[in-house]
Amino acid sequence: MSAHFYTLSLFVTLLFVSCKQEKQISPVTQEEIAQSNIDIDHLPSWNDTEAKKNIIAFVEEVTDRNSVNYVEVQDRIATFDNDGTLWTEQPAYFQLLFALDRIKTMAADHPEWKNKQPFKAVLEDDMKTIMASGHKGLAELVMVSHTGITTEEFEKIVQDWIKTSKHPTKNVPYDQLVYQPMLELLEYLRANNFKTFIVSGGGVEFMRAIVQEVYKIPSEQIIGSSIKTEFDYNEGNPVIRRLPEIDFIDDKEGKPVGINKYIGKKPIFSAGNSDGDLQMLQWSASNSKKNFELYIHHTDEVREWAYDKGSPIGGLEKGLEEASKNGWTVVDMKNDWKVIYPFELK
Amino acid sequence: MSAHFYTLSLFVTLLFVSCKQEKQISPVTQEEIAQSNIDIDHLPSWNDTEAKKNIIAFVEEVTDRNSVNYVEVQDRIATFDNDGTLWTEQPAYFQLLFALDRIKTMAADHPEWKNKQPFKAVLEDDMKTIMASGHKGLAELVMVSHTGITTEEFEKIVQDWIKTSKHPTKNVPYDQLVYQPMLELLEYLRANNFKTFIVSGGGVEFMRAIVQEVYKIPSEQIIGSSIKTEFDYNEGNPVIRRLPEIDFIDDKEGKPVGINKYIGKKPIFSAGNSDGDLQMLQWSASNSKKNFELYIHHTDEVREWAYDKGSPIGGLEKGLEEASKNGWTVVDMKNDWKVIYPFELK
């Protein structure tokens, strides 16, 4: 359940394509590299620009036992936003595209939806009307598509969807639209004994069903928005049921709150791409230990998308101002990254 | 904020003793042992009774690649209750003793408490009146003593308390009242690549301030009850403030809900000591993978306490019935454990 869902405009054609999910290209195992003494490039998909230099300088400093800024292993906490930071979020959050697909699938059991908004609009691919339904309409679509089932059922539905769906414009499975340079960054940090977490406005159970294998991040290190659930003993076959009620919104001020709730430590590294990530970056920036804040700036209208200020998805304005003021590192996707997606390596 | 707080009777003398906290005896590093080929006892403080044999048989089976019940490392999730399972919970939950101590400390700034219940009763060590104040009174004591400050301030207060307080009858610092056999069990599981979690009705930030070092469990693997918090940018010095409102009660049906929320995987091993842990054990028992459920039965009125059915703290009745019905392992503390506390090893 993402707060994002309530503030976005859509321009989407939904495709149902029955195809096998391809395994993404496994990024180079940075751990092995780091453990050898070979002077090798840990971030091969990054150009040799300032962003890359800053990251490497930080990691080398906090892992150097002789540095005054050395950080003990248990405090090497790194938190990453997901949508727009680790994978693409255009032309709409993938979770919303899932919700719309799911409504269409469910429509067979709901003949009344043909004449009931906002469902009618979904079935007719009428995005204008969907958006006109506002927060209330979008919330109804999300609740209907995400709740009323058990956690196991939901996981299977999401996993089936990711295996059979393709991105509307890139025409590849959604989980191939992760950023190769960020996969390398995750591996590089882990090779230096950082613990990597996702801290996203996206629904935690939606993400857990998809991204564990993609990012090599276990479910217990994925933090997101959540709905309320309840335990049902179910006559000896216990299940957890998903209820149509918001539990926690892991966005904006919710991000440091979520970090405190789930992790209980302040990160020394955090990365985001929108003003919704600003409070998370402020939180890590307030760490008394040496810390690093990273903003991904979407500047590549050819290979990905270009947007920032005023974008209904991933809007970034205050964050850029604060990055500039505080000397945070800003990635210029167009100029700092050699490739965007793993499949470009082929 | 524990639901426990609302269902207990107290018989407590509170002592303030200014003494340095002693480091607990570090349990043998089971990891080193497991990695060698020496045939050594992994659970030296356990007698060679059925409980110990069952535990070892389970661990050897799920870690044996040739077994049909082999479990992959990422699924080796073990969840432990805290109060009464990893440390003593008598004559009252340590967190409640902390709350009462804290009220006394705060009283200097609250002269009105001398004439206002339930505070008056706390200041006069009048346990009968405290208990008579019921859920409402106890909740007020907990809220006043646990909220209205930042998370950093709360952590420091708890850490100062644990360093300067002693258990009312055992007369040692509270964090020495952990169970040596359970420390060994935690180490043994971790040496076999289990990830160990605490899943307790106790307040998560109270536990995190104390037990990380004691149990060698990092804060992000400690799950508990929580109060609501809010992020405050605080003019560039961000803090998280603790609000006087319950967020989540991690007890009974809340335990599997908390496990799903924080971990996102079903455990294959869970341990508890009261009916408040029953749903957690039911949850792990419903795992399609080979699993193990453990109940600690408090049977040692000499070295620790003896209680089960009808006890206002750690009541255990249904759990024993279900353990018997399902073949779960029940530890008889008196007969299965050579020592209770680490200091008995001296």
Structure, described:
Chains A, B: Keywords: Amino-acid biosynthesis, Hydrolase, Magnesium, Metal-binding, Serine biosynthesis. The structure is a homodimer. Chain A is of the alpha/beta class and about 350 residues long. Chain A has two domains: about 35-90 and about 175-345, HAD superfamily/HAD-like (Rossmann fold); about 95-165, no CATH class. Chain A is built from 13 helices and eight strands. In chain A, strands 1, 2, 3, 4, 5, 6, 7 and 8 form an eight-stranded mixed sheet that branches. The model of chain A is unreliable at about 1-35 (pLDDT under 50). At the A-B interface, helix 9, strand 3, helix 10 and helix 11 of A face helix 9, strand 3, helix 10 and helix 11 of B.
